[in-house]
Amino acid sequence: METSILKFERPEAFYLLLVVPVLFILFFVARYLRKKSMKNFAELQLFKVLLPLESFTRPWLKIILIQIAFILLIIAIANPQTGSKLEEVKREGIDVFIALDVSNSMLAEDILPNRLERSRQAINRLIDKLTGDRVGIIVFAGKAYIQLPLTTDYNAARMFVSTINTNMVPSQGTAIGEAIQLALNSFDKELERNKAIIIISDGEDHEENAISMAEQAKSVGVTVYTIGMGLADGAPIPVYNEYGKRTGFRKDKNQNTVVTRLNESLLQQVSAAGNGAYVRANNTRSGLETIFNEINKIAKSEIEAKVFTDYENKFQLFIAFTILLLLIEIFISMKKSSWESKINLFEKNHK
Question: How far is CA 215 from CA 142, 168, 224, 261, 271, in A?
Answer without folding.
Answer: 21, 28, 9, 25, 9
